[in-house]
Known about the structure:
Layout: H1 12-18, E1 22-25, H2 32-47, H3 56-62, H4 64-76, E2 79-83, E3 86-91, E4 105-110, E5 114-120, H5 123-128, E6 132-137, E7 153-156, H6 161-176, H7 183-194, H8 226-260
Antiparallel strand pairs: 1-2, 2-3, 3-4, 5-6, 6-7
Amino acid sequence: MSKNYAYLPLSPEEEEEYGNDIIYAASFRNNAKTYTTYAASIFVITCIPFILVYGIGLLLLLWAPFFTYVFYKDITTRRLFVTSDSIIYITSPPCCIPCFGVNKTEKHVLLSLVTDVIVSQGWYAGCWGLNTVGIENAGQGGVSSNGKRTNDLSFTGIENAQLFKKIILRTAAAKRAGQSLSRDSIEGIIKGENGPAPQSAPQNSVSFIYGGVAPQAVPVPPAVDSSKIDQLNETMVRIEQLLTLQAQAQAQRSGNSSLAI
């Protein structure tokens, strides 16, 4: 089955567990070298001021080649895909200390709990053409010290971030409405983003998601009304904002009560 996943290097165990349920897979491949250079340059720039502190910066710079390798393995081992009920993000970068193995992380975010997908680009990342995507989950996350909500899942270097955001929001809204988007529905969203696909021989239902050409034999019927999806998504965002304001007000009242005592 792995031959169908050109941009998704799944292990045999992951293929067995998720392979038949994947409806969309994101890719980081084309941004691997750019992200590696971007992350390595940040590391070097951070080390330079520490040269004045007893030469600690020089010692850190000796590790720059190895950290560059870590950054490269970080983005090339990432697996980000969407199943019928969740978003799954897996990465396996090596440990910062050689010969200590890898640090594997696997995160799951339920589609029914996704409230927003934020695409941001700082000034330095913009110089490299990289976007950062953050996914907010109504069931987890928190509020930072400056009052801003933290993202439950965040990553830099994804290809076509706006298309990924569109797919996640549509899939999450459909899930909250009690429906599930199929691979054909995702194909329709991709067509709407990239324009009509060229005519070609029919392929299997999985390969077009991972770099192949979408089949043209059968038109894709609309699975969910887009206006209802957008209205439902806006309603969920408003509910989350009201709950956040209520939690902050309760925390403030508790603080005032403790001060009064």
